[in-house]
Amino acid sequence: MKSFFKNIILGQFNYLAAVALILIGLYAVTYKRSFLKKIIGLTIFQTAIILFFISIGYKVGASAPVIPHGKGHEFQNFLFQNPLPQVLMLTAIVVGVAVTGLALALLEKIYDEYGSIEENEILEQLRKDDA
Amino acid sequence: MFKVSRLLVILLLLIFGFFLVSGIGELPLFGNPSNPVHKQAGNYYLEHAEIEMESPNVVTAVLADYRAVDTLLETTVVLLAGFAVMLVLFSTGNISKFEEVVNSSYILKISTKLLIPPVQLFALYVLAHGHHSPGGGFQCGVILGSSLILQALVFGVKETLNKYPPKRIINVAIFGVLIFYSIGLICFIQGGNFLDYSQLQSILSTTESHTRSLGILFVEIGVSLTVMSVIYLMYIFLITKGEVNN
Predict the structure, then answer these.
(1) Which residue of A has its CA nearest to B232?
(2) What CA–CA distance (Å, rounded) separates B223 from B105?
C-alpha cells in the first residue's frame, strides 16, 4: 500500500489527473441530458488527452524546446522537453476548436428544428411524430 | 425506453477508471529524462532542428518541416470544418432581418479602435518570430481572428460584415491552404519529395538550412490565413444563424 501511494499518487499524479478528467468527460457525455453539456464533456475529455500527452513528454528540470544559440550555450538533451508530444497536441487543439465549432453549428440547427436542446424532450417529439 | 440510473453510470465509469489507473502503475516514472519516449524521434529533432533549418524553436521545425504533411492535412481539416459550419447553418435569409442591439459606449469604441492595430501587429510578430520563440502559424491565425471577432463584438455584426464580407473571407481561407499545397508542389516539380523545402534553393539562392527556414515561414503564412478566416467565419455564422447575405 505504501509503495502504491509513493509510485502512483505522488509519482504519477499527472496521469491520475488525466484519468479523472477522462471519467468526468465520459460522465457528461453519457449521462447529461443537454446536448450543450455533452459538447462540454467532449471538450473535457480532449483536455484529458492533451494533459496525458504533455505529461509523457515532460522531463524534470527541463525547459521549453527553444534552443538558445550563440556563444556560451552548451546543448544537452535533458535540458529540453520532448518536442514531439507538444507538436501533436498543438494540432489536436486546433482540430478540437474546429470540431467544437461544428458541434455548436449542429446544435443551433437542432434548436431551430425542435425548440429544445434536451435529449429527452427531443426523443419525445420524435416518438410523437412516429405515432 | 428504460431510464439509466445515475448510480449505474457512475459504477461503470469507476470500473473503467480502475482499469485505467491500474495501467498507470505500469507506465515509466513521470518526468524521468531516461524514459523510453525520450530516446526516439524527440532526441533527433532536438539535436538536428537548429542545424538543418535554422529554427531554434524545435516545435516549429517539427510542425512545419519534419511533420509537414500532418500540418498540411490539419489545415485542410480546419478549412473543411469551416465549410461544414457554413453548409449546416446556411440560410437564404437576409442580414437586414437580423436584429442586433449595439450598446457600445463611445469610450469602448475608441479604445477598441486603438487596441486592434497592436493586436494585429502582435499576431504578425508571433508569426515572424515563430522560429525563435514560442509561436507560429496557428497562434498567429487565432490572434488575427480574435481581432476580427473583437470588432464584431464592439461595432456590431452588420458593420463588420460590410468591412469583411464572408464571400471574400472564404477566398482568403482557400488561398491560405493553396499556398501550403503549391509550395509542396513546387518542391515536387523541382525534383524532390513533396514539401521538401530544400528544393526551393535554386529559386531563393541561399544556403540549404536558410531555405528550409524560409519554407517554414511561407507555409505558416498560409496556415495563419486559413485559421484566421475559419475562426471569423464560424463566429459570424453562429451569431447570425447563417443570414449573412447582403
Answers:
(1) A101
(2) 35
Number of structural domains (chain B) is 1
Q: Are A103 and A38 in contact, with CB atoms under 8 Å apart?
A: no
In a domain, B14, yes or no: no
Lowest mean pLDDT among B37-41, B119-123, B144-148: B37-41
> Pick the residue with more confidence: B192 or A37?
A37
CB contact under 8 A, A101 and B81: yes
Q: For residue B20, is it within any domain?
A: no
* C-beta atoms of A31 and B58 within 8 A: no
* Distance from the B71 Cα atom to the nearest Cα atom in chain A, whole angstroms: 7
**How close B234 comes to chain A (CA, Å)?**
7
Cell of B5: 440510473
Using the beta-carbon criterion (under 8 Å), do B237 and A105 form an inter-chain contact?
yes
The reply to whether B24 falls in a domain is no
Q: What is the ipTM of this complex?
A: 0.85
More confident residue, B232 or B3: B232
Is A12 within 8 Å of B231 when comparing Cβ atoms? Answer: no
- Which residue among A13, A14, A83 sits closest to B58, beta carbon to beta carbon? A83
CATH no. of A2-60+77-130: 1.10.287.3510
**Cβ atoms of residues A10 and A2 within 8 Å:** no
CA distances from B216 to A118, B59, B68, B178, B228 (A): 46, 12, 9, 15, 18
Range A34-45 average pLDDT: 94
Per-residue confidence at B1, pLDDT binned at 50, 70, 90? very low
